[in-house]
Amino acid sequence: MPKTTKRMQKTHAGIDSRKLHTLDEAVKLIKARASAKFDETVEIAMNLGVDPKYPDQQVRGVVSLPNGTGRTARVAVFAKGAKAEEAKAAGADIVGEQDLFETINGGKIEFDRLIATPDMMALVGRLGKVLGPRGLMPNPKVGTVTMDVKKAIADAKGGAVEFRVEKAGIVHAGVGKASFTEEQIAQNVKAFIDAVSKAKPSGAKGTFVRKVALSTTMGPGVRLDPAAAIAAAQS
């Protein structure tokens, strides 16, 4: 039997895909099954009762995870003059104007978060077809279009995670690493669930959070009891 199959059987052993778990139970299960040779990312997926094709059912926001993501985000900034110098001093990995536009437009994207000062958005807006599908377009609602580039860079590198609902009504994100303690993972998950819950749009009807699951990069998904998870996040 191939090693990959044996490994999958081992990681999936004891997991009932239909059972709903408490947050603490789910964290224990996914940590115990993180056996890859690298530090796996802890991922969360939330199925929401929205249809994103309607403007009043969009879900988007940003949350600062209390224990960070376990990785340092690479940050690019569209700025000029004093703001460009401020961005460089604040630790931005890439800072530019037309040169950065040309690089991105050519398909070279070597960053995880893009920040822009408001005066640069006329230029950045022309990159919509490149940045939009990747979820990288700066947006004032999540603090990535701002004159306070220093704070935006600090947030991005300090564990801020941006989320946006996909076509199928799902929000997903990395919320830590398997090497984190159970408490650190649980704290991050609570912060993420709370932020998404508070981002409920006006057009959402009925149950907003319908399903929640945790997993690691190579591990199986473990379902949470949505109501209990929300209550834990708000406690």
Short description:
The chain is α/β, with parallel strands linked by helices and 235 residues long. It has helices spanning 3-12, 23-32, 81-89, 98-105, 121-124, 128-131, 149-157, 182-198, 226-234, and strands at residues 41-48, 60-64, 75-78, 94-96, 113-116, 160-164, 170-177, 209-216, 222-224.
Give a structural overview.
- The chain has nine helices and nine strands.
- It has a four-stranded antiparallel β-sheet. Strands 4-3-5 form a three-stranded parallel β-sheet, with helices on both faces. Strands 2-6 form a two-stranded antiparallel sheet.
- The chain is globular and about 55 Å long.
- By secondary structure, it is α/β, with parallel strands linked by helices.
What's the N-to-C terminus distance?
47 Å
Output mean pLDDT: 92
What's the alpha carbon Rg, rounded to whole Å? 19 Å
Beta-strand content bin: 15-25%
Work out the number of β strands: 9
Give the SSE layout.
Layout: H1 3-12, H2 23-32, E1 41-48, E2 60-64, E3 75-78, H3 81-89, E4 94-96, H4 98-105, E5 113-116, H5 121-124, H6 128-131, H7 149-157, E6 160-164, E7 170-177, H8 182-198, E8 209-216, E9 222-224, H9 226-234
Parallel strand pairs: 3-4, 3-5
Antiparallel strand pairs: 1-7, 1-8, 2-6, 8-9
Distinctive features:
single chain, 235 residues, three-stranded parallel sheet, four-stranded antiparallel sheet, alpha/beta, 20% strand, 9 strands
